[in-house]
Amino acid sequence: MTDTITSSDASRVDFIAIDGPAGSGKSSVSKAVARTLGFGYLDTGSAYRALAWHVLDRGADTSEPDAVLAAASDFPVQLGLDPDDRTVRVGDVDVTEAIREPRVSGAVSGVARVPAVREQVNRLFRTLVAEAPYPAVVVEGRDITTVVAPDAPVRILLTAAAEVRAARRAGELAGENAQAVAEALHKRDASDSAVVDFLNAADGVEVVDSTALDFPQTIDAVLTVIERLRGAQHG
To answer: What whole-number distance in Å separates Cα of residue 181 and Cα of residue 195?
Structure first.
């Protein structure tokens, strides 16, 4: 049976779904929005990174779907929803820093491209939102508006021109070669787009293009969409 967030579920805890490609600013913007509104924040990418770490820690091959699925069936991940506490644990191990290591980054796409794994992890996301002690949770990732929560009251695609995204990502990674960062970003886009369409908004999804916006302006643009759509729902 396929789990989807239903209208009755959404009325208990609003699901604020934000999609976007790498370098679009969705993580930093989503955290700022959640902090501003007093909402929870769920970084779905951390879950996939934690799973990649878990697969590697077991000595399994992240390019083998069966190995990834086996690891996902025994995946004791703990993700907090506090935008100011981004601790991630797998069992008793704090992997907050480890999941950002290059070896893990390089394994994420292989883990995330397994459909059965995505379905299993998506169920985790829906459960976390449904049980959250917040009026709403800002959930950001790659297919949140279309697969994880297609009936969410607020669905936003946060995007920007590829060259702008690459420049921003290079700015975040001090000391990294800008050209290498741009190539890695384009490679990530190509790999992930084979699994999900995160560059085009589905019907009913609002687009916020931050190409010409600075960080505060992007936050304001997203807040405006959230307030309008939640006001329509609860009005």
So the answer is: 22
- Chain segment 165-204, per-residue pLDDT in tens: 888 776 665 555 666 666 666 666 665 554 455 556 677 8
Per the listing, tokens 């970084």 go with 43
Dihedral sign of CA atoms 86, 3, 222, 156 in order: positive
23: nearest Cα among 226, 155, 147, 198: 198
Q: Are 17 and 144 in contact (CB under 8 A)?
A: yes
Distance CA 159, CA 25 (A): 8
The bridge status of strand 88-90 relative to strand 93-94 is: antiparallel
CA–CA separation, 93 and 56 (whole Å): 14
pTM over 0.85: no
* pLDDT given at position 173: 53
> How far is Cα 70 from Cα 146, in angstroms, rounded to an integer?
26
